[in-house]
């Protein structure tokens, strides 16, 4: 025997030669669906492939009108803006819907802000830094004012 299949001609021992063929159970290497698909399915598949291949993306949306930048806010001095923050803390502390823990936290924020402002005045920063500090205090005033409005609107939701 040569290889996994018997050779094509082997003697049987009685003087006759038997011709054997390799196993005919080998499957075809062609895809199974090639001969079994319906014509409608093949046409539908070709139509989908053609539509996907020829489909173009829609044109881009044209740009809208430019958005105007917010107007530059005229800031006061560093001292004026930071004092406004301290007064915003004092107003927020008067909200009737705050509990004792919230009031203690506001006292701590106010005390820390006073210490930071005192250190800032002592350091005498350059004008650009004073402008940045004033802008930060203005933002903080807006935040504390919004929190004060929320507080006056009603009590905090229960978790």
Quick structural gist:
By secondary structure, this protein is mainly alpha-helical. The chain has a domain at 78-153. It is 55% helix and 4% strand.
What descriptors fit this protein?
2 strands; mainly alpha; 159 residues
Can you give a write-up of this model?
- The chain is mainly alpha-helical and 159 residues long.
- It has a domain at 78-153.
- 55% of the residues lie in helices and 4% in strands.
- It contains five helices and two strands.
- The chain has helices at residues 33-36, 39-54, 78-93, 100-123, 127-153, and strands spanning 9-11, 17-19.
- It has a two-stranded antiparallel ribbon.
- It is elongated and about 115 Å long.
- The two termini are 84 Å apart.
